[in-house]
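Q: What residues go here?
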């Protein structure tokens, strides 16, 4: 039996991240860790893994408990190793040579093709690099598992595969998963910790059910706070009246009573629970509008790899005003290459077979945030759009950038901060057509839902690539599937999602 106990655990960085965490995570508990970008998820995992110390409280693990902590990024020293060797290197040196078979067993668990095992890590897709990080931890057979954003860069097939693996292989151990993927949390967790600076909340429920329970508790807290503050306000009014009467009548008794009422009001105000407010930064989009009914027309263009190898044919298709088109397909089918090709066509490049309406104003976002110059600061990037210094500072602050971050090079920002900066720049470009490749990567749950709301509200024409199933369902009006080297329109994503899921069983 293994367990991880948190006793009054608190952590403060430049601001308080969380405080007074008290919970026990036991065998079979799979905890979804939910918070906004920069609000302490990774910090808490590092504390539990013994790689950092909390500001207060204690973290106590069962005697001999071996914790496996899967981080977000691949260490640079692994990039030139093969996939197999990088997993083998995770074994203790004393057993590495004669127990190298354990690396093969770990890779078998993730259905790793033989040809990939001898490929350099730097040549692997982002999805396989994520699974490599998990395999490196799993090869040592940990008693508990901590996963930090394990779904980033996974295609839908690998997402379903990871869900199946977690539910089968880790069901009898303590597991903590920090993630912004709502359906992944529902599929893989049975407990949820909402990490908050003032009062974190823990529910013995998967994410969606826990969130409904959280909303009920927040509503009850807000109602209670409103009643308490109303009572305190009334007490202060009474105190003010008694003070005036006491001064005019010379009554010391009334003055003392007024002082008592003020002190009582202050105690009520001090004890009132603050209503939680998300602080991860706002996301807004724009739509400069167009009167054109058709924004793009494709006449059976061929999409190929950068090396010229054919991927698929589009057939004839039109993109109409107000369409929100979701592009579906397995990794390697050509989704991102198609988006890049459209980007070239819309920005004036010569792409035979693509007709672009002259009134199209493009808003483009790729997975690598390549439109953000890593040497420039957020303030410089926003200033490029003709925004004055004062308004620029206000816009960046609203997007989650405190003043001290606004002057730092983009290269020093976290992935979540880069994503929010890219989305802010997207808004300031005043587009009427959005071309978005994985726009939810590294964006927290509140940000994803805000992005969904903005896409719906602005009614801007969009072509989207995403592996976030909730996002796909919530925003798409048309669905195009790349399959068998052809692009075809399907009624909805459900049948294809189910087919991909079945292939992983």
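A:
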């Amino acid at each position: 039996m293994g367990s991880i106990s948190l006793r009054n655990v608190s952590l403060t960085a430049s601001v308080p991240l969380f405080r007074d965490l008290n919970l026990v995570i036991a065998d079979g508990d799979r905890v979804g860790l939910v918070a906004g970008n920069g609000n302490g998820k990774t910090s808490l995992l590092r504390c539990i893994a013994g790689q950092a110390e909390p500001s207060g409280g204690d973290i106590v693990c069962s005697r001999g408990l071996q914790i496996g902590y899967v981080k977000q990024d691949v260490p640079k020293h692994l990039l030139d190793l093969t996939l197999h060797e990088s997993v083998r290197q995770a074994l203790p040196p004393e057993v590495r040579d004669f127990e190298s078979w354990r690396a093969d067993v770990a890779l078998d668990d993730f259905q790793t093709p033989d040809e990939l095992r001898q490929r350099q890590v730097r040549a692997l897709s982002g999805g396989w690099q994520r699974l490599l990080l998990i395999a490196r931890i799993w090869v040592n057979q940990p008693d508990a598992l901590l996963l930090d954003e394990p779904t980033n860069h996974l295609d839908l097939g690998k997402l379903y595969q990871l869900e199946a693996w977690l539910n089968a292989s880790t069901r009898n151990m303590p597991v903590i998963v920090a993630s912004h993927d709502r359906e992944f949390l529902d599929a893989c967790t049975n407990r949820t910790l909402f990490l908050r600076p003032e009062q974190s909340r823990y529910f013995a429920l998967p994410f969606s059910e826990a969130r409904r329970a959280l909303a009920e508790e927040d509503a009850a807290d807000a109602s209670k706070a409103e009643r308490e503050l109303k009572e305190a306000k009334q007490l202060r009014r009474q105190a003010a009246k008694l003070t005036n009467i006491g001064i005019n009548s010379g009554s010391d008794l009334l003055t003392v009573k007024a002082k008592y009422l003020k002190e009582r009001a202050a105690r009520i105000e001090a004890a009132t629970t603050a209503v939680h407010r998300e602080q991860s930064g706002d996301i807004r989009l724009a739509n400069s509008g167009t009167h054109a009914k058709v924004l793009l027309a494709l006449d059976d263009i061929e999409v190929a790899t950068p090396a010229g190898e054919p991927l698929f044919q589009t057939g004839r298709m039109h993109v109409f005003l107000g369409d929100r088109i979701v592009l579906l397909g397995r990794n390697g089918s050509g989704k991102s290459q198609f988006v890049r090709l459209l980007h070239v066509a819309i920005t004036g490049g010569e792409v035979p077979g693509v007709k672009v309406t002259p009134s199209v104003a493009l808003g483009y976002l790729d997975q690598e945030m390549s439109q953000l110059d890593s040497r420039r600061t957020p303030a410089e990037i926003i200033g490029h759009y003709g925004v004055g210094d004062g308004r620029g500072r206000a816009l960046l602050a609203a997007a989650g950038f405190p003043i001290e971050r606004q002057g730092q090079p983009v290269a020093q920002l976290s992935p979540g901060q880069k994503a929010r900066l890219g989305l802010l720049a997207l808004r300031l470009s005043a587009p009427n057509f959005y071309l978005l490749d994985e726009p939810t990567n590294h964006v927290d749950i509140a940000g994803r839902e805000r992005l969904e709301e903005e896409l719906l509200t602005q009614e801007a024409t969009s072509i989207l690539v995403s592996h976030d199933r909730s996002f796909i369902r919530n925003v798409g009006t048309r669905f195009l599937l790349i399959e068998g080297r052809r692009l075809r329109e399907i009624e909805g994503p459900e049948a294809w999602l189910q087919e991909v899921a079945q292939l992983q069983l």
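A: Context that may help when evaluating the design: The chain has a mean pLDDT of 89. The chain has 17 helices and 20 strands.
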